[in-house]
Amino acid sequence: MKNWKFYNALFVRVLFVMILFFFCMFLVYKTLYYNSILVGFFVFLMIAEMYFYVKNQLQFYDRTLLSILRKDFSTNFPEEHKKDNFKSLYLLYETLKVQQQEQTSKEMIYRSLLNNIDTAALILEKENEEWNIFLMNDCFSQLFKVPKISHWKYLQNYLPSLCNEIEKTDFSELKLAISIKIEEQDLQTFMLQTSRTQTYNKEYFIILLDSIQRVIEKKEKEAWINLMKIISHELMNSLTPIRALSQNLLQIVDQEELEDDDFEDIKSSISTIINRSDHLQVFVENYRKLAMLPTPTKQMTPINELFEDCLRIMSPILRAENIELINDIHSSRSIMMDKNQMEQVIINLITNSIYALKEKQEKKMYVSSYTENNRFFITISDNGKGIDPDIQDKVFLPFFTTRKDGAGIGLTLSRNIIEAHGGYLSYQTDEDKTSFVICLI
Questions:
Q1: pLDDT tens for residues 235-271?
Q2: Cβ-contact 171, 205 below 8 angstroms
């Protein structure tokens, strides 16, 4: 730092000391000893003053730099030092102070975010080949009844199963389900996911734990919310016009005399009310089908026989729509299933494929089956328009449909039937083909 005022003041002091020193030597040479002693005293005072001047300057530098190194910006920079000699130091101090405040604000935001998520999070920091706890969010502390400790070895006393599982893999990245016993409670299953990261000379290990039960409950809650939105929407679509028409009818019948136009309005209103009531009845019946699905009556059913019956029913429609069916099911095996319910699933999926092929010139449908890992898979595919990415998460949602004449329960009912058989129904879609896959154990 070029503090010219400091250098100039120091130069003047050195110059005065040298002049007085040589003057003192001159007086000694002239044998004026008393005068030389007096001048020598002044030289001593000048040297002492210069020493304390330099010391004060350097001490302030040291204190300020030490404060910066310790990241302690709690003291205010003295006003008299904000200019001249310490101007550059003041600018450095203020810049680092602002950066420290911004860093502190960001850390508070990050900690607040971590403390408000529903996932238990633990971040470890490596120091001298040992792991210490850098951060533990509130969810982790509350979920596992662990105080916010700072050492990994202390955490081992509270959660030995978790710590042993991580140490067993030498703190490597992993993703698995783990059972943990919390205090005296029963074992609970969590999804454990870890990752390792390094910044500059620091190494961190991030541990995330999600309660599988909580994840399931969250998904169920979301499904119920979506279902209630749809039910409310359907009910309001029917009840609102029924109420409006009923009020209109009351106003008409309150008249002293009725004209021909009034009778036409009454007939039209009653007809609309009946139509909306029928729609509401169909909707309730469809909901009842979903909510009261009977338990499957399982019998050993040959796969070939199942598909022969389904395709016999659907063949006239396939021919009418000019759809080429490629049947690759030649399995001779039989599976325990409710044949009537399974026929309903396959007919639903074929019907959906027929609708997806409406706008295609070349219409192809594929049915196939295969066995893998003690599981039997049935695939129904088509080269139709596919599933729009915007609605891929809604295809199994009750009453959701893209068809004008659709009820929106086909896929939901099909999935419920397959799940009641202990299997699952999924789909795969790309530009050329959309496939619905039935998996049976």
A1: 676 677 777 777 777 777 777 676 767 777 777 778 7
A2: yes
Lowest mean pLDDT among 69-83, 406-420, 421-435: 69-83
Bridge pairing between strands 187-199 and 175-181? antiparallel
Q: Residue 417: its pLDDT value, please?
A: 83
Full DSSP string of 15-77: HHHHHHHHHHHHHHHTT-HHHHHHHHHHHHHHHHHHHHHHHHHHHHHHHHHHHHHTT---SPP
- pLDDT top residue among 301 and 92: 301
3-state helix/strand/coil string of 299-333: EEEEHHHHHHHHHHHHHHHHHHCCCEEEEECCCCC
With 80 as the cut, is the pLDDT of residue 363 above it? yes
Identity of the amino acid at 388: D
**Alpha-carbon gap, residue 346 to 365, rounded angstroms:** 13
Q: Tokens for 395, please give them.
A: 């295809």
Query: pTM of the prediction?
Result: 0.43
3-state SS track over 95-113: HHHHHHHHHHHHHHHHHHH
d(CA 133, CA 135): 6
| Torsional sign, CA 34, 35, 36, 39 | positive
In whole angstroms, how far apart are CA 351 and each of 49, 80, 285, 347?
Answer: 102, 86, 20, 6
φ, ψ for residue 298, nearest 5 deg: -85, 140
pLDDT per position as a tens digit, 368-401:
888 887 788 888 888 877 776 666 666 666 655 6
Contact 161, 178 (CB under 8 A): yes
Can you read off the two tokens belonging to residue 8?
């100039």
